[in-house]
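FIELD: query
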Amino acid sequence: MKLQEIDKTRYRKNMNLLIVILVLSLAGLSLAFGSALIAIFGATPVPGEPTGNFHLNLLGVILSVGLCGAVLHHFKERPFFREIYYVWRLKQLHNRIYRKLVKIKAAAAQNDVNALITLLFYYTSLRQVYLLDDNTLTLPALTQDLNRLNAQIDSLGLLISPEQFTPEMLNL
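FIELD: result
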């Protein structure tokens, strides 16, 4: 995955709009599906007794999540979702790297070039995501890690960049 320049204002505007639309859609569709399922399959209410329609309401929520997920999957390549989908994929890749971070750091300590490239990509892309999401709390620690890594790369005389990273490098 190659790093891309992202317009932060457009990303934040689209992300906020998507969140509002998703929350409203999930709430509305859950109610609609739940009501429809209760109307079709629901138990007749007896005064003073619970209706026992919890499972139908839960199924309505599951159906609404599935429908919203299918709609998002269908529209993920549209220009509106370009930045959102890129950041989502980048965060997935961060999770994959994070699960192997101990091994990657150990290999980087042994000056393994693939591990150094992976760490450089990880720190650089993590910095990009932190800036996009206004996560400035952990940015100083990340900057220190990136500076230490760049010093190690410079001391080895290597010319590497985050663009050299491929997900196959995670198969240590």
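FIELD: remark
The chain is about 70% helix and 0% strand.
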